[in-house]
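Q: What would this chain look like folded?
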Amino acid sequence: MTAAGLARAGTLVACATVAVSAISYGYGIALAHWLPSNDYAVFAAGQTLLLVVGTAASAAVPWALAKAVKAHPAGTAQRQAAMAYALGVGVLGALPAAVLVAAVTALYAPASAVVAVVAAVVGIMASGCAVGWLQGEQRFGRLAALRVGEVVARVVLGSVAVAAGFGAAGALGAFLVGSVVLFVGGFTVSGAWADLSWRPGVLRDRARWRDTAGLSAVQGLLGVLTATDIVLAPILTGTGPDAAAYQLAATLGRVPLFIAAALAVVAFPRLTDSPGAARQTLSTYAWLALPVTAVLIITPAGLISWIVPTHLASAVHLLPYTALTGLGLGLITLATTVLQARAAYRKAVARLALSLAVVITGLSIGWYSSNLALGAGLGVLVAAGMVTPPVARKIRATKPSPPGNRLRILHLGFEDPALPGSGGGAVRTHEMNRRLARDHDITVLTTRWPGCADRVQDGVRYEHVGIGRGRTHLGRIAGYALALPFVSRRYAADLVVEDFFAPVSSIGAPLWTGRPTIGVVQWLNAGEKSRQYRLPFFLVERAGVRAHRRMVTVSAGIAERLSAMNAAARVEVVANGVDAAAFDTEAPRGDDVVFVGRLEIAQKGLDLLLTAFAEQAHRLPGGLVLAGTGPDERRLRDMAGRLGISDRVRFAGWVSGAAKYRLFAGARVVAVPSRFETFGMVALEAAACGSPVVAFDIECLREVVPESAGVLVPAFDTTGYGRALAELAADPDRVRRLGSGGREMARAYSWDRLALAQERAYLAAVRDWQEV
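A: My prediction, written as structure tokens:
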């Protein structure tokens, strides 16, 4: 399977994992409400034991079979022998597995629950052949559907059994039904029955047993490790509310582990023959699991408490600890999967055995100190720290071929310059890329929007990616961010360029690209968006910045902020530029105050501009022209009406290119009332067109509005801003003088010169990668 195929398969399995997790979450929470504490503790521990059996069985049957199915064509003797061996192992393995699980379950559960668990063990072992065949054939779509069907069947029957009064035993017995769904569904695939045969002789093949024994030992230990805390809880504390609350919190915190298990299923066939697959898999896990863990940790207790039954309310306060436990267990799972794919079974068993000892020690400390969740979390994180780094150090992604004089550049540019209402960031991306495209091959992946079309513009290829059609701004951004880590792998590239975008700034591209990656930072506004939406976007921004080793930004102010967040990163300042056509634009000087940009209040400060203009309207000779589109146009029209200046304000709509430059050149004054900016391209373009600028005295605008080009007013002083507009508009000589000074200043911002500086940063990023 190609990288693109892996991406698509990963998407399918990830979606199935989300669905399975959501259904399982709801089911687990419902059972916590429906079952008494004692019964729930029995169910949670029994379910976890079945997970151990499934984990071990996935090595004894599906994983070993998947390798053979992938290596040999359908209907061949080799594949039929592998299928027969898998059937035999499943039958022979079911008996000892059932006996062992029954013995453990009997320590804390009634006989009815023991019988139910034994029946489920048999079903799990039997379904392994169908799963292994689908995995080896890489039919992940059907496998994903069957996983969802399995959990739906289990939940429906389990709910019926609980409602009928069968308690924990009924809920556990429903696992047998889920296994039947997997077995029957897997073997209804065309071609699967041709590989099914019975050859008892293959069970004497020692080579097969060695491979299976290694996989089974590793997966068995891994299953025990991931189940230890949940199974030991009722044994250490009894089957009461304390154990049940911990088990509920542990189940909710296992989402990162579920993500790791899904990635392991998809990646395992490729880990044996693709040198870049290991790094790719671990990077994808980091990108998916870290945000999920952060959400589980920081979600306010009040939002969780309403779904947790009152008799298990302490589970809410345990969730931050169990989320970290889930993250660590996921890391151990993937690191162990890499070792198994390389047949390093002894090394994997040794590390897992040590990890198990560490986790049990942590649990003992937690039990002794009456904080089982903290003890488990610390134990798992220490174990992950021992297992993961040695594996990660040996992983080397396939490095790009020496670039010579030409790079293949994949630019993750979220905003298409052809999108109506696109801002200065899209302009910068295109102006840089169309110059670099003379010497390099550049593809820009951008968001979908109604009416968008893939195209080649000025030598730069634009391709629109995402989930959905992008009818809303939120839909465009969310669909783009979710799809990008998978879609981007379809493209060969010597360098990946990540444009930062709102509201999260960075989505941590270096963690999942597997290629040299550089960040282009035109803004850092996650803090402002966090306050606006009351969501922790700033945490994602901080993690994304720390993921980068090299970044390019447009101003010294942003460079200082980036260095404060990531002192180890190399940050270079490459400013925005101005189109040469702006300098050649001439137009009769009018009387209007002109604003050009996004019609948005929070950043662009248009409420401040309207207030300032209204205060001095009697002194201003012309009107106020607002050119642009944006989400706050209706509010601005209403505000102009309330201020009594509707007849003085003209909404000119979206302008670009030569029309924009003529509007600048004909303005009496250009207003830039922003509350915050990262560069101030509008101010620079206005200066290049020979018009003076009035702006607030904020960090980034000081660089492009010197005294020779405009007037800076103390930040957000609307009275002072209105006075500056009126005084400047009334002094034609000063308007001409500042216009001339602005043009001279703006000539230093040549796109050609700046593109060369950005190219040097790109080449340095590739060299850094090759030297690691």
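The two ends are 28 Å apart (CA to CA).
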